[in-house]
Write a structure and sequence with these properties.
The chain is α+β, with helices and mostly antiparallel strands. The chain is 14% helix and 16% strand. It has one domain: paralog of FGE (formylglycine-generating enzyme). It is built from 6 helices and 14 strands. The strands form 5 sheets. The protein has a 4-stranded mixed β-sheet. Strands 1-4-14 form a 3-stranded antiparallel β-sheet, with no helix packed on it. The N terminus is likely disordered. The structure holds calcium ion.
């Protein structure tokens, strides 16, 4: 299977700070400043256990299946929404990666040796936008407020997941919200929803007995036409599909979600060589992607509204994706986890 939706260029930047209109009122409904952060009710407790990570019948980077101990943690029920991200920006004045012009020196340092220098017209704020029939294109002016470019807006989409956010942006939000990004093992464990070695959060079959779709993915003729048989052409607001066994929505489908870990193609092989039972320690210490050697990438999980079962089939519990930490994409966001506080004896 080809990974047709994986873009080849690395997202970034913007110079316009336009503090937009999801107002302070939407952020202060529960009181003062502290209440603008994610409330406890946003989270569910995910129990610890032994995750059989990976799958035997798919991409090589999901091999081998390896047992990993995952500790209990708290996970946000849904993806971070535009409303929640707006509160963060209003409280902090944070400017996302896609809103800043790329620094040429930083960019060239991140690219493999010998890479050509980008044209000057590419060194402007922007991010990657997908259009049916046209694929992925670097789009100046695309950012979380204008996810499909300057002519788009999130007005009326407060409960859509925030997108066009880089790994760095996601980390900044998570710290502000008193949490962190999930490890890759935590994400997979959570996505499995208490089921063991099932392809999807809801079981082995992609669709329900009546043919209904269980998450927001892509139906139709990819990448030309999206028939929207699952009820959504493009992005869906959070929690439009049933929660999994842990009470978590949309870990599969809708958007790819950033994880804390560096991406390595052989991460599961490394875990398999661990003496005794492997513990989730937050992934590899370094990144390696044979598709683009020398480019450090973070893990993405969960698949998106652009995942077609016959193309990338990313909306599987074991499916792995990768991108550079500065990348913004219109199908990529995140959610926050928190540690379970344990009382010492
Ligand atoms: Ca869809």
């Amino acid at each position: 299977m080809a990974r047709a939706e994986r873009p080849l260029y690395h997202g970034r930047v913007t110079k316009w700070l336009m503090l937009m209109a999801l107002s302070a009122a939407a952020c202060s409904h529960a009181g003062g400043h502290a209440a603008t952060r994610l409330a406890e009710e946003e989270f569910v407790r995910v129990p610890g256990g032994i995750l059989f990570m990976g799958a035997e019948d798919t991409f090589p980077d999901e091999l081998p299946v390896v047992p990993v101990r995952v500790r209990p943690f708290l996970m946000q029920r849904t993806e971070v929404s535009n409303r929640q991200f707006s509160c963060f920006v209003a409280a902090t004045g944070y400017i996302t990666t896609a809103e800043k012009a790329p620094d040429l020196l930083v960019l060239m340092t991140a690219l493999p040796a010998g890479s050509p220098q980008p044209d000057a017209d590419q060194l402007v704020p922007g991010a990657l936008v997908f259009r049916l029939g046209d694929g992925w294109n670097w789009t100046p002016g695309a950012n979380w407020r204008q996810p499909r470019g300057p002519d788009s807006s999130i007005e009326g989409h407060a409960e859509d997941p925030v997108v066009q956010v880089s790994w760095d942006d996601a980390m900044a939000f998570a710290r502000w919200a008193g949490g962190r990004l999930p490890t890759e093992a935590e994400f997979e464990w959570a996505a499995r929803g208490g089921l063991v070695q099932q392809r999807y959060s809801w079981g082995a079959a992609q669709n329900g007995a009546d043919g209904h779709w269980n998450c927001n993915s892509f139906q139709g003729d990819f990448p030309v036409s999206d028939s929207g048989e699952d009820g959504f052409r493009g992005l869906a607001p959070v929690a439009q599909f049933a929660a999994n066994g842990y009470g978590l929505h949309d870990l599969l489908g809708n958007i790819w979600e950033w994880c804390a870990d560096w991406y390595r193609h052989d991460a599961l092989q490394q875990l398999a060589h661990t003496p005794g039972l492997a513990e989730d320690r937050g992934g590899p210490l370094t990144s390696r992607d044979p598709d683009e050697p020398g480019v450090a990438k973070r893990v993405l999980r969960g698949g998106s509204f652009l995942c077609h079962p016959a193309v990338c089939h990313g909306f599987r519990t074991s499916a792995r994706m990768k991108s550079t930490p500065d990348t913004g994409l219109m199908h990529t966001g995140f959610r926050v986890v928190r540690d379970v506080l344990r009382l010492s004896r």
